[in-house]
Amino acid sequence: MVRLSFPRANRLTSHSETTVAPVPDDEFATQDIYAAYHTSKVLAYRATQEFLQTAKPHFTIINIMPSFAVGKHELLTTPEDIIGPKTSNVVPLAPIFAEGMPFPCPGTTVHIDDVANVHIAALDPKIEGNQDFILDAGGLEGIKWDDAKEIVKRRFPEAVEKGLLPLQGSSATRDSKVDGSKAERVFGLKYKDFEEQIVSIVGQYLEAVERTKQ
Question: Would you give the DSSP letter of residue 63?
Answer without folding.
Answer: E
